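User: Quick sanity check before I run a bigger batch. Here is a single chain. Can you write out its predicted 3D structure?
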Amino acid sequence: MSIRVSIIEDDKPAREILARWLSRAEGFKFVGQFESGEDCLSRLPQQKPDVVLMDIKLPGMNGVECVRQLKPQLPKTQFVMLTVYEDSNHIFHALQAGATGYLLKQAGYNELLAAIKYVHAGGSPMTNYIARLVAQCFPPTPSQSNADDELSPREHEVLGMLARGFLFKEIAETLKINIHTVDTYCRRIYEKLHVRSRAQAVAKYVNLPLAAGGSVHSKGTQSG
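Assistant: Done. Predicted structure follows.
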């Protein structure tokens, strides 16, 4: 089944290039493009895209606020922020709002398609530096400080694999469980860590005792 992709980008030439690439690529279905956040708020949910490429710096409503409003309507859609450079402040807030990761605008054709496939399969393009910034958004509280102790041994294992960049399918194959069980473990991990996405869970991971002294290692290709 083709991956359904929508684009929100105010730069017309850039938007047209992305649209052309996606329209011609095998295994992808380009479902729509918008030049502003306001324009996509009512129409994008109707398209039900699997992945949305969202420009961060849009005129009017920025991409971060757009994701914040769209994510509750499209919980299964993966939002990937587009940026000219590693704008840590905006990316940090975008991940907090529910974005899955980020992609540099200068990414080439093959890199773009690979990143979309990676995100759709359960990956999360995010550097260690951004992960730590996101972690700072969730300071420990008395109810959260021992969250890692509440995780079961299997949940610890799954979280560690997520942090190393394993896709859901790869976790299932490695642990010899089905992908629906992996999804169940992830939802429990999110609940116990008080986060809403894989990106936020990985960010928390770098501050947990089980990861002390370590960093987020990715076995997949990261954008940026």
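The longest strand covers residues 28-34.

User: Great, the batch can go ahead then.
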